[in-house]
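Thread: adenosine-5'-triphosphate complex, take 2
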Amino acid sequence: MAESVVSDKHQINRIKMHVQGLDENIQGGVPEGNITLVSGAAGTMKSSVCFNVLYHEAVAGKNSIYISLEQSAESLVNHMMNMDYDMRRINLVIIKELAELKTRMAELQDQTLGSMIIVDMGTIRKEIRDVNTDNNKSWLNVIKNVVKKIHTDAGCPLFVLDSLSALYVLSRFENPRIELFYIFEYLRDMRITSFLISEMPLDGSKYSEYEIEDFLADGIITIRLTPFRRQVVREIAVVKMRATACNNDIFSLEFRNGQFQALYGGQNPLL
Ligand SMILES: Nc1ncnc2c1ncn2[C@@H]1O[C@H](COP(=O)(O)OP(=O)(O)OP(=O)(O)O)[C@@H](O)[C@H]1O
Ligand SMILES: [Mg+2]
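Output below.
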């Protein structure tokens, strides 16, 4: 059975976003097992915010899965190195071939550091040309099986999908309401705390492609770039977070000294 009822609110375990100033406003973090949409336009640091969670959780010894559908693992890791994350503190595993999955997972048995397993789906896709991409279901099934296998073999409590929008390009959904319902149920059954990155239009008119995701998800965190005269301010807000008394105010999001910070009373774009 996927979910269970707690007898006391303090029994709800939470995963920190590791964003100073934000965790304090969501009772310490995202409830374990929740599925959160991380929505934002291009370049708003969606991937970085998600990577940041997995990185800090790996430093604390937790294993995680990061499925990158479009951005190569090299590009992602180089970006994070440029942000000064010390990769020596975690065990970074990059999967570029599905055939090596089994052996790479077996190697984790002797690992003392927390592992972040990045699956470079872009490279895998280029290599497996025989998976018929016209068949809507095939790539979705490949991704589901990879997540399940890593989750079972490496005991990963955390998962990032980068991005839902790229998944829609790969697997055209005939009936999004039904298909998305089953994807969310699949994740809930695994009890894996998930962050699904969702590309938002520039005008911020919606958080997700079909808008059903907003209702299926337990939480929505949005990031946007807001012009203020000639300056652009990066802002973060928690739109919803089930089982959490959260502050829905808009904070400015900054990355300083290797740390994400949500600042209250940052520049108000309307002033
Ligand atoms: N210290 C830093 N090093 C590198 N990039 C930084 C740094 N601080 C801020 N950035 C910004 O991070 C942005 C990219 O972050 P990221 O890839 O996480 O965004 P994204 O929302 O996932 O983008 P995309 O829509 O391309 O997937 C760049 O636009 C870059 O300017
Ligand atoms: Mg990204």
